[in-house]
Amino acid sequence: MATERTLSIIKPDATNRNLTGKINAKFEDAGLRIVAQKRIQLTKAQAGKFYEVHAGRPFYDELCEFMASAPVVVQVLEGEGAIAKNREVMGATNPADAAPGTIRAEFAESVGENSVHGSDAPDTAAVEIAYFFSGLELVG
Ligand code: UDP
Ligand code: MG
Question: Whole-angstrom Cα distance, residue 14 to residue 73?
């Protein structure tokens, strides 16, 4: 399997509870390398643009408010099959369905406040990485 990069976000519910290090340990234990990382606070408009694929869904407005409510940590994870591997480490969107040991099973508070974002495919990963990071910030 090829080396891939994927975009990860540690969401406000997790930064509020000081869980950045515990979540990063899950990535590193799974063999994912954090090759870029920064803590930022999104505006609602920036969150809305990031999640524009969900515009019109009933949860969209609340999701954008939530993502702008406190700092997030945006990061690029690299590794063999990193996109699917990160989705595995994250667990299902709804923590009630997330497998034991996954980030969402251990830390998520609800289907909305579910601690992490991860890209879902190579094309979305490329777009999402470019939304937050310039080439100069990706040193591998
Ligand atoms: N979300 C929500 N309610 C839902 C579905 C999704 O609040 O019924 C939020 C949740 O924070 C989720 C994000 O919208 O992580 C994006 O949804 P998606 O289906 O892409 O889930 P993910 O890829 O994050 O697992
Ligand atoms: Mg998604």
Answer: 9
